[in-house]
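USER: I would love a firmer grasp of how sequence relates to backbone shape in proteins. This is the protein in question:
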Amino acid sequence: MMSDERVIAILEKIQVEMSEFKTEMSEFKTEMSEFRQETTTRLDRIETDISEIKDDIEEIKECAEEVRSTTNVLAGWADEVRHTVKVPLFKTS
């Protein structure tokens, strides 16, 4: 059997190790919290950028539709008046 002093020494050693482990876990928890905050901030910025890009794309699509529609109208008009209007071609020297 172990003596009381030896048991107390072992328990004290376990208590010190547990205290060190608790400190390390607390530090790890702090680091993980900081990492999570940094990651969240980065993701928020990325989501904002993506939202702006989506808005820009939507605007480009709308402009492209307007250009397409206008081009079709002009092409139709040109087809209707091509026989009635003669555009002089300038001679180049």
